[in-house]
From TrEMBL:
The lineage of its organism: Bacteria, Bacillati, Actinomycetota, Actinomycetes, Mycobacteriales. Required for morphogenesis under gluconeogenic growth conditions. InterPro entries: CofD, CofD-like_dom_sf, Gluconeogen_factor. GO terms for cellular component: cytoplasm. It comes from Corynebacterium gallinarum. It comes from the Bacteria. NCBIfam families: CofD_related. One of its GO terms (molecular function) is LPPG:FO 2-phospho-L-lactate transferase activity. This is Putative gluconeogenesis factor.
Length: 331
């Protein structure tokens, strides 16, 4: 694999969670860096992950498992491991709804004593092309201030739990973590400091992206790193937590949650935002993060040439590498 040059990063560290991080990791894997690090949120409290954290006290493994699956090798063996990690048991018994990868991470955590050693072992067994690092080594809870749940739209209510926040029919105004200033996983911090390129987003904005910048050590690492920092915006607003959000609003609430956060660039899908006036608003808002903006085709298509609601790994890789080269050339 190529070493770091002015147009190609040696190490890429991606922050996020869920399906958004999965697509980002597929993209950066295409970029063929020597090292890939996935820094993953640990606030999930639903489904298999929720049952595991409540019954065993471990960090929720679901988003970690998805990141491992995204990094499996692009061959028959890798496809087998991806299928195994993502396999979910059916039926109505004790195993119903659990993902096999979640149980494997839990078992290895019991054996090795730490989730990081367990994740590294799964990555080794699955032939993953990078490391998966929980942002914190303790489970986190998400609490949101939500409006629109009462007749008086000014009234704010507290909604606690990632699942509840994601599904709320109200408008999420702000989120916080419990505990409020959690200690970051030192290896996640080091992965940010050692990176040539750091990506943030796409993903569930309040439950997968913003939680990273609520961890003080992560914000400090993002401030100190020499890496190029690129924010990738979502293709669409999500029902529930970002219902009705424009692209500009996504950037605005990110800045609200971390006033001192600075990034170098924001990538926006060109087909999602087409009006010149809206693009101008986005560019002005991005300046509050210290960032430039580019509008590029990064949306995946189905077999019939119709656009889907996910990022295309190849297109996103090309966009990231183009902007990385431009920014490093200016430095």
């Amino acid at each position: 694999m190529p070493a770091c040059t002015a147009d190609h990063p040696h190490t890429i560290t991606s922050l996020g969670g869920g399906h958004g991080l999965f697509q980002t990791l597929r993209a950066v894997r295409n970029c063929a860096p020597e090292k890939i690090n996935a820094v993953v949120t640990v606030a999930d409290d639903g489904g298999s992950s929720g049952r595991i954290r409540h019954e065993l006290g471990q960090i929720p493994p679901g988003d970690l498992r998805m990141a491992l699956a995204a990094l499996t090798a692009d061959d028959d063996e890798g496809m087998l491991w991806e299928g195994l990690l993502q396999h979910r048991f059916g039926g109505h018994g004790a195993l119903a709804g659990h993902a096999l990868g979640n149980l494997l991470i839990v078992a290895l955590t019991d054996i090795f004593g730490t989730s990081q050693l367990a994740l590294d072992k799964v990555a080794e067994l699955a032939g993953s092309t990078g490391r998966v690092l929980p942002v914190c080594v303790e489970p986190l809870d998400l609490e949101a201030e939500v409006s629109g749940l009462d007749q008086d739209p000014r009234l704010m209510r507290q909604v606690r739990g990632q699942v509840a926040v994601a599904a709320t029919p109200g408008q999420v105004r702000r989120v916080r973590l419990i505990p409020e200033r959690p200690e970051a996983n030192p290896e996640a911090v080091q992965a940010i400091l050692d990176a040539d390129l750091v990506t943030l987003g796409p993903g569930s904005w309040f439950s997968s992206v913003i939680p990273h910048i609520l961890v003080p050590d992560v914000v400090d690492a993002l401030d100190r790193t020499d890496a190029v920092k690129i924010l990738v915006l979502n293709l669409t607003a999500e029902p529930g937590e970002t219902n009705g959000f424009s692209a500009e609003r996504h950037i605005h609430v990110l800045r609200q949650h971390a006033n001192n956060l600075k990034v170098d660039h924001v990538i926006v899908d060109s087909g999602t935002v087409t009006l010149t006036s809206e693009r101008d608003h986005i560019a002005r808002t991005a300046k509050t993060l210290g960032a430039d903006v580019s509008f590029q085709d990064v949306r995946a298509e189905d077999g019939r040439g119709r656009f889907t609601s996910v990022h295309d790994p190849s297109k996103l890789c090309d966009a990231l590498m183009k902007r990385y080269a431009e920014i490093t050339a200016r430095r």
